[in-house]
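Re: How this chain folds, sequence and tokenised backbone to follow
How to read it: Take the token row as a discrete description of the fold.
Start of record: The labelled sequence and token lines come straight after this line.
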Amino acid sequence: MKLSIKSARVAAAHAAKRELILLYRDMGHEIVEKQETMSWGKSVVERLSFDLKAELPGIKGLSANNP
């Protein structure tokens, strides 16, 4: 029973991390595409960061210069 619980928790954590990585990858691709095709500049990324932080308080990793 304990092993099943631990295994399920690890699997859930991996699934959540995978989904976040895919989300951030897709967001990055979309931003780069818009920068190239619509002449978006750095200020747009900063504005997007500001808007996301306002809409999703408490979520980390949404800064404009997040490595």
About this structure: The mean pLDDT is 88. The longest helix spans residues 2-37. Residues 2-55 form one domain.
